[in-house]
Structure formats: structure tokens, C-alpha cells
Amino acid sequence: TAMSARMTVRDPHARRETLALLAMLAVAYLPQLGAVTGAARPEEKYNMSVSAEMHRLGEWATPTLDGQPWFYKPPLLYWLERVTYSLSAATPFTARLPAALAAIALALLSGFIARRLGVSRMHTTLLTAGSLGLYLNGRLAITDSLLALGLAGAFACLWEAHQREASRWVVAAGAMLGVAVLAKGPVAGVIVLGGAAAFTLLREGRPAVDPLLRPGAIALAGVAALAVSAPWYVLMYLRHGQRFFDFFFVQMNVDRFRTPWRVESLGVLWGGLLLTLVPWLPLAIAGLVNALRRAHRRSPRSLFALSWAFSVMLTFSIPAQKFVHYSLPAAPAFALLVALLYAEAGDSRLLRRANAAMAVLFGLMVVVGLVATRVLPVIPALLTSAAAAVGVVATMKHRPALAAASGLAILALALGWLTPAAGSSPWPDSPVPQRPLYAWREPPGLLEFASGRDLVWIREPGQLDAALQSGGLVWMHERDFPGPPWAVIAEAPMMRGDVKPAEVLEAFRVGSLQPLMGRVVIVGRPTP
Q1: What is the reported pTM?
Q2: What is the pLDDT of residue 8?
Q3: C-alpha distances in angstroms, 234 versus 67, 247, 329?
């Protein structure tokens, strides 16, 4: 097995395929990465603020925001952002680059795992990269693609331990688990342990001395995980004592499992999985059905992908608080299920129905792209429609890798090019007077990058009054404008977050995004 692996790595065709995939992923993920006119999330703005402040202060250990310790997340993303800031400058591009590179690495790693499982490497790589959840979150300065990469690395090592019957791969899985714990927190340990236990205990044909059940290997894996992740946690406890422990471990982790559980939040998580797997959701459902049908045979390949997927989803189903993007680490496992479907189901009715649904879905995307030219930039919208048309043909011609590439192209065109082209900057184009600047209720990281100026984050009404009374200028949403005696010094259009369906219809009727737009304003004392 080891000899065949080395031969595969040295295969010129494999190297060319790797370079081709790397080029495709770079073209899809990196252009417009630093656009402040594209998609963003509140969590991203906090992360940008924290890493920029750490960089400004020369701090590597304690994350801070406005000079106060910020323990909502472990430091791996902040560290990587600090590295990219040091290589260039603190910009939206360098802030998002670590997450984007992690997303690209995750897609390539999923392809490597697919090859080790004996299924299509290119198909799996493109499916993973072309999932809506990874593309959206992998191009933002948030921790999810780093967590998914660490978990994928751990599961890849577990499969190698199974294939090679070698304990060293169990230890390597522990080290990758440590990376995931540094990216998101101890919940990564629950996911990996749950998935490893399910895969180990349910599959058939285990060797007499299973490396995944050797106490020594398990103990060394725990040591490896702690060696990677524990030093930062210990240092934070030594520096900040019970305050760190109570906030990070108790409030941000344990309490989320103790608060009342609600069915509605479960819908958010599992509904989020459906969104994560767009545009190849029909194939993911068919792949899941195929694997469940084969589960009674205790097939190692199917059980491995199922254990990975359900360990993610079931772990995040337990706490009361759930978010849509929590399903992202399951995307590579579902991509493997799709690749297994093509490898195992052949010309089955299940696969034919899934392909028919995909053809219909691609056809709808063609129509949506054409209709979108009414209100959105024409060329990116038409190119998106053309990519969807290629997807229709590829699906009908049974070219799964080309269809997956079409799905990735649709996301790259619609979200990587079209959204920034139709969006607007959160900072006005008009000159803003050189007076102290404040950001009302929104962390200033993205605003600082967009404006090239320092802003102070204020959240209390008293802070707002004091900032305005002292002659400062305050960035805020138009809905928060306090009115006279203060004036709007500058403004910028901004897509509203509370858009109603009737307003979308009105936008198409008038051929403009104006019905969907609001304003952000710079407020201050009127200039004499």
C-alpha cells in the first residue's frame, strides 16, 4: 500500500491533475477576495478588528479588542492573519487570505482522501470546493474553513490508520485534532472522537489488533493533540486566571450544552446543511441514500464517510445555540458520499433521478442568470447563466467532474464577481473630515480597512453622546441616526438586511437595486 501511494505521488498525470486543480481553485477563490463591496458577516468584522489590534500592538498571545481580552475564539485565525499582515499589510485581502487558503487546502485534501478510498479525486475536490457553504465562508475572515481543514486532516489520518494498520497515523490524527482545537475549540475533540468510535466499532473486517483501538496509540494521540493545542490555553489561564476559564470553557462551551434545547434551532442547523450542499444537493441526498443502503454490509468506505458526516451534524445538534455555518465541516464527507455513489451505483435508478434533478436545477440557474441581468451587472450574470448551461449539458452527458466544475464556476461568478460588482463600500466615497472617528455598534475592522483610518468601537448610548458632544464623527446605519442637532456629514448606499419579497419584485420591475438599498452615514456636528 505504501509503495502504491509513493508511485501515485510520482505519477506525472497525478502531478498535472494536482496543478490543474490548484489553478482552478485559485481562480475561483482568490479574485475579488479583498473586495469590501462583497459579502461579509458580523463575526468577520470582529475577527478583523481583533487581528488588526494584535498586529498593531505586536501581540501574539492574548487576543484583544479595544484593549480588552477577547476570548470568543482560539487564536489560530488571528495568528495566520498576523502572518499575512506582516508579509504585506493589514487589508481585507490579507485578513481573508488564511481562510481562503484553508478552503483550497480542504478541497485538495478531500480529493486526496477520495483517491485513497478508490473514487474520483477530481470530482470530490470540485464538489467540496463548489459547495455553497465552503465558498461563502471560506472567503471570509472566519474560523470555519480552518476547523473543517483540521477535522478533515484528522479523519484522513484515521483512514490511513485503517488502511495501513499503523498506529503512527492515529497519533497524526491527534495532532490534526490539536489544530482543529486551536481553530474553534474543544468541540472539535467531540467530533473526531465520535466519528472515530463509530467508524471503528461499526465496520467489518477489523484486524485482530486494530490500531484505532490500541490503548498506547490512543494515549499518544491525546498527547499529540495536547502538545499542539494546550500551550496557548495554559498560557491564557496563567495570564488571566479564572476569568479566562469561566468565559471560554464555561460560558462559550459548557453552557451551550446546558441551555434549553429547542427544535427550531435544530432546523437552523440541518436546514443550513441543505444550503451548504447547494448546488449539488440532489446528488448529496442520493449519495446519502446509497451509503445508508450499503451500511448494513458494514462497508468501510461508506461507514467512514457516514461517520464523518454524522459526527459533525450530531455533535452540533446537541447544544441549544446553532448556526447555519456549523454544517460546513460535513461538506467533504458528503462529497465523498457522492463520489461513492458514482463508483458504486453505476447506472442505477437512484443516480439517474439525482442527475435529472441536477439538470433541472442547472436549468433553473440558467433562467435566474438571464433574469438577473435586469438589475445586476450584465456580463457576470450572463457568464453565470452560461456556466449553468454547461452544467446542464455535462449532467445529461454523464460528465460528473465537468458538472462539478460548472457548479464551482457558478459560485465563483455569482458570489466572487457578481456580488462585489453589485455591492457598495461601507465607507463613503466623499471626503470625511479629519476628526476623531467612532463606529456605532459595529466592530470597526472592515471599516478601518475600507477607510484607511482608525475608528473606536462604541456600544452604549452614553458613549455615543460623548463622542458627538466632543466633536467626533460616528459611523452608523441610517436607521440609528439621532437627528438634530447632529448632521449627516457623509453617506454611502448599503444593501439592507431586512429586504422583503415585495421589494425584490419592485427592484425587477424598475430594473434597479434602489428599492433594496439603505444608507450608512457619518454623523457629527455640522461643519461651520
Answers
A1: 0.94
A2: 46
A3: 21, 14, 27
